[in-house]
Write a structure and sequence with these properties.
Layout (H helix, E strand, L loop, with lengths): L1 E4 L3 E3 L5 E8 L8 E6 L5 E8 L4 E4 L7 E6 L4 E6 L8 E9 L2 E4 L3 E5 L2
Parallel strand pairs: 2-11
Antiparallel strand pairs: 1-3, 3-8, 4-5, 4-9, 5-6, 7-8, 9-10, 9-11
Length: 115
């Protein structure tokens, strides 16, 4: 199982960013994709998830209204888009898949929000 994420991004406040997570080594529709982030000096923060098979999504209350989860079945890729960025969104973003007895994570994507 591999989850490969897109590269680091630098954004200005008020803009948007999209992070991708390409899955391989398993059936993409069989497991949710979760998204978490870790800001400097802080713990992991769960942002939400998508069920790729049904495109059902759930966002943490903190992000509702400015986050979108999507999945492309043809490429086995999940995406998270975060809008109206602020410097407080600077963090490393991770996608993950919890499968039976194992958890798999992408390598992380650094998102920096700065003017």
């Amino acid at each position: 199982v591999q989850l490969v994420q897109s590269g680091a991004e630098l954004r200005q406040p008020g803009t948007s960013v999209t992070v991708s997570c390409k899955a391989s080594g398993y059936t993409f529709t069989s497991y949710y994709i979760d998204w978490v982030r870790q800001a400097p000096g802080q713990g992991l923060e769960w942002m939400g998830r998508i069920d790729p098979e049904y495109r059902a999504t759930k966002a943490a209350p903190k992000f509702q209204g400015r986050i979108t989860f999507t999945a492309d079945l043809d490429s086995s890729t999940a995406y998270v888009e975060l809008n109206n960025l602020s410097p407080e969104d600077t963090a490393v973003y991770y996608c993950g898949s919890s499968q039976d007895d194992s958890d798999y994570w992408g390598q992380g994507t650094q998102i920096t929000v700065s003017s």
